[in-house]
Amino acid sequence: MDANPDQFEKEARKQGYSKIAGIDEAGRGPLAGPVVAAATILPQAFHLPRLDDSKRLSPQRREQLFDAIYEQTVTIGIGIVDPIEIDRVNILQASLLSMRIAVDNLRPAPDYLLIDGTFPIRSPVPQRVIKHGDRRSLSIAAASVIAKVTRDRLMRLYDEEFPQFGFRENKGYSTEKHRAAIRTFGCCSIHRKTFRGVKEYVNSLW
């Protein structure tokens, strides 16, 4: 992570905020499955070595951090938006919606939001968007790990229902094996029908 990973949290506390939530999502790019967001409020004395943007961690390390974050955090909120809604509103809007749901699921409610990316969410809570926030803010990095592990676990469950597509390995992303499976079997109910690589096969839905 950056040299001062709690700089944004400290700045928010100086402004008088105390329940500062970091928000991130996982699953914008895949051809299948939901987009999952997480929101985390960390205690001021939070310390977790090697916490980083989930994309820069091994699956094993993410799983270890997932448990440690749940043990130390004040509260965690999860937001899940399914492929039907993704196709209806587009992936950007679905991602922002998942973040809003995650925030709404926080108890206690936050009084300030740190959001990964460049787009704010629809919320009355004061917020700040941070580009590459998952490697610059502790709260967002924690949220990125929770969102990624939660989504990966969901995709492993979907793999049991749709083993032809290899969701356990590809997590719905556009790997060559996944694309070949779509060409062979068509698409299933959790594929995103408006995405290139899937929409060409919607007539063969099963």
Provide the CATH topology.
Nucleotidyltransferase, domain 5
Gap between N and C termini: 43 Å
Unreliable stretches (pLDDT < 50, length at least 5) are none
Enumerate the strands of the largest sheet in spatial order, edge to edge or round the barrel.
3-2-1-4-5
Globally, the shape reads: elongated
Category from helices, strands and their pairing = alpha/beta
> Strand tally, please?
5
Number of helices: 7
Number of domains: 1
Oligomer description: single chain
CA-atom Rg in angstroms:
17 Å
Order of SSEs, N→C? Answer: HEEHEHHEEHHH
Task: Write the CATH architecture name.
Answer: 2-Layer Sandwich
CATH uppermost class: Alpha Beta
Relevant CATH superfamily: Ribonuclease H-like superfamily/Ribonuclease H
Structure description:
The structure is a single chain. The protein is an alpha/beta fold. It has one domain: Nucleotidyltransferase, domain 5, CATH 3.30.420. The chain is built from seven helices and five strands, in the order αββαβααββααα. The protein has helices at 7-14, 59-72, 83-89, 91-104, 138-161, 167-170, 176-185; strands at residues 20-26, 35-41, 75-81, 112-116, 127-130. A five-stranded mixed sheet has the order 3-2-1-4-5. β1 and β2 (35-41) form a beta hairpin. α2 packs across α5. The model has no long low-confidence stretch (mean pLDDT 95).
